[in-house]
Amino acid sequence: MIGDKIYQMHQKEYKSRPGLGLSQAGHPCPAWLWYCYHDTPTTTPDGRILDIFKLGDLVEEKIIHDLRKCGYTVLDQQRLVTLKQGAIVLRGHIDGIIEGPDLPGPCLLEIKSSNKARFSQLNKLGYEAWDEKYKYQIHAYATLLRLDNILTIVYCKDSSEYYSELLSTDPEYFYDKSVKVFDAIKQKSPAERLCPRQDWWLAKMCDYSSTCWSSS
Fold it and tell me: 64: domain range?
């Protein structure tokens, strides 16, 4: 089957990102942060999941192209952003910085794609309550780049609907959350886990579940 060949190709080409990045550092579990920062081995993601990630990259390119056609200016795509504390360095790359006549000056641009179920949750909750990792990511980038505002755009892959929200940068949240992140990853052994037991729904989806619970 063609699909199987594509999935296998993605798995062969897959290269895991070393360490913990700013796009991941908002994860709510201290133990997960520790395992990720210390490069704890995980299995290669399923080829179908990798294909979804690839589609997300294409969606980002499409939206930026369309924004420019609509009269917006998008600069600094994939600009590197770093957060340092001593010898610890967390890195990330932004989708861009956007400017336009209906925006309050330069804004961080953050683009995501979603399935219908997650998109429905987003419309009920709003961007910041939708995903803790995403919330930290945008406020980290915007604070470190000294941008006052953030434009988030989410594309529903099932319906081609768009969700957009203009947010004010929250440096206080960013600094408070960063303290917790560094506290977790600086420990000599894995930090306290979030999941109460291994059969909890979040533990079942965690890449580090077997390692985490085998160390109990």
Answer: 2-214
Query: How far apart (Å, rounded) are the C-alpha atoms in residues 67 and 124?
Result: 25
Separation of CA 181 from chain center? 15
d(CA 166, CA 104): 9
pLDDT tens, position by position, 31-52: 999 999 998 887 777 778 887 8
- Tell me the per-residue pLDDT of 67-102, one tens digit each, with 9 for 90 and over: 999 999 999 999 999 999 988 999 999 999 999 999
**184 SS3 class:** helix
**Left, alpha or beta for 10 (phi > 0: left; psi -120 to 50: alpha)?**
alpha
Tell me the C-alpha distance between 18 and 89, whole Å.
Answer: 12
How many domains are there within the chain?
A: 1
C-alpha–C-alpha distance, residues 137 and 178, integer Å? 11
- Contact present, 98 and 107 (Cβ < 8 Å): yes
**Count of positions (residues) in the chain:** 216
